[in-house]
Amino acid sequence: MQIDKNLILLDHPLIQHKLSLIRRKDTSSILFRQLVNEVSSLMVYELTRDMPTQLVPIQTPLESMMAPVIDGKKLVFVSILRAGNGILDGALCVVPGARVGHIGLYRDPTSLQAIEYYFKMPSHMHERDAIILDPMLATGNSAISAIARVKSLKPRSIKFLCLLTCPEGVLALQKAHPDVPVYTAAIDRQLSEHGYILPGLGDAGDRIYGTK
Ligand code: URA
User: Fold this and answer.
1) What is the maximal distance between C-alpha atoms in the chain?
2) pLDDT at 109
3) Ligand 1: residues whose CB is within 6 Å?
4) Can you tell me the distance from the alpha carbon of 38 to that of 36, in angstroms, rounded to the nearest whole number?
5) Which atom of ligand 1 is found nearest the CA of 198?
6) How far is the CA of 179 from the centre of ligand 1 (A)?
7) Hey, whose CA ends up nearest to atom 4 of ligand 1?
8) What is the pLDDT at residue 171?
9) Mutate which of 134, 190, 201 to test ligand 1's pocket (most atoms within 8 Å of Cβ)?
10) Alpha carbon nearest to ligand 1 atom 7, residue
11) Distance, CA 158 to ligand 1 centroid (Å)?
């Protein structure tokens, strides 16, 4: 569902159902990880709906024909460490040929600003469509920094994919990068004073990796 020009709510019932299970506090790490994988595959499936295809000659058992194929290598998934890696596996299940970039950012607990500690992207970014992955678009600080870094390499296009966001995160991101579409499975009520999404799902990284 298109909420506004650059905000798309992925409201497929399967995505919504799995997200509800993910949110529950008694969902174990094993199940949480599995569900995040499944939801991210479904979300990437929706998000790649407009991927270009080209016709190539193939041979069926009966005839030759021109058949549509995508060039998966043109796509780069950019994972914002560490929670972005939780979405990455599901994304790669759908587009196994995609390239992968990583951005290491952590939130300074006091200022909530994003501090970069790692950045590695595939070559020839100007030929690629980038999908930046982070389960939570909360304050927007990490997403804004990550998008700015990826933009500096001039990819063909950029999309941002998260499981959950809130009005504060969407507004901040749209103010900084009005040209980048945000795809999300939910827009929650609000951001807490500690930078958590409410009602949310807690700390995505801790829940994926069982580190709490
Ligand atoms: N990051 C998380 O993991 N959870 C939130 O609610 C906000 C940011």
Assistant:
1) 66
2) 77
3) 83, 136, 138, 195-197, 200, 203-205
4) 5
5) 6
6) 24
7) 203
8) 97
9) 201
10) 196
11) 22
Name the amino acid, one letter, at 122.
P
What is the Cα–Cα distance from 23 to 4, expressed in whole angstroms?
25
148-177 pLDDT per residue, tens = 999 999 999 999 999 999 999 999 999 999
- CATH 3.40.50.2020 assigned to domain 2-51+70-209? The reply is yes
The pTM for the full model equals 0.94
CA of 136 to the centre of ligand 1 (A): 5
CA distance 188 to 108: 23
Token duo for residue 137: 């678009």
- Over residues 32-79, the pLDDT tens digits come to 999 999 999 999 999 999 998 999 999 999 999 999 998 777 999 999
Nearest ligand 1 atom to the CA of 83 is 3
Paired with 177 in beta bridges are none
Domain ranges of the chain: 2-51+70-209
| Model confidence at 110: pLDDT above 90 | no
